[in-house]
Amino acid sequence: MKLKNVLIVVKDIEKSRQFYKDLFGLDLVLDNGGNMILTEGLVLQDEKIWKKFLEKDVIPQNNSCELYFEEPDIESFVKKLEYFYPSIQYVNKLMTHSWGQKAVRFYDFDGNLIEVGTPM
After folding, report:
1. What is the rounded distance in angstroms from the CA atom of residue 30 to the CA atom of residue 74?
2. Interatomic CA distance for residues 58 and 78, integer angstroms
3. Among candidates 77, 103, 76, 108, which has minimal Cα distance to 92?
4. Which range marks the domain in which residue 73 is found?
5. pLDDT tens-digit readout, 20-74
6. What CATH number does residue 40 fall under?
7. Residues contacting residue 109 through CB under 8 Å, at least 6 positions apart
8. How many domains does the chain have?
9. Residue 84 falls within a domain, yes or no?
10. pLDDT in tens, 60-99
11. Backbone angles phi, psi at 58, to 5 degrees
């Protein structure tokens, strides 16, 4: 068995597609109308469709998982983040962990937690 994709729920699928393109270079692989598969296996699901499937509310900023990316030039990434999305909500700004890894954590527009760290 193989993990194929990770799906996150979003309110505005086009705005989210652009966000993940701007910051992480993820391109559209397939658009199924309310469900977009991006490169690296990230799937964006329209919140209305997700709620209909589950018959439950979506809980943003639930802090139960995160998308993790690695970037060797993290200072440049943070500059890009601040340039494209100056009002982004941080969990923690760029910091250095006790083991030496630099990382930044923030939420996307829909409260999905994202961490970007330097390679270990």
Report:
1. 29
2. 28
3. 103
4. 65-120
5. 999 999 999 999 999 999 999 999 999 999 999 999 999 999 999 999 999 999 9
6. 3.10.180.10
7. 10, 11, 12, 15, 16, 19
8. 2
9. yes
10. 999 999 999 999 999 999 999 999 999 999 999 999 999 9
11. -90, 135
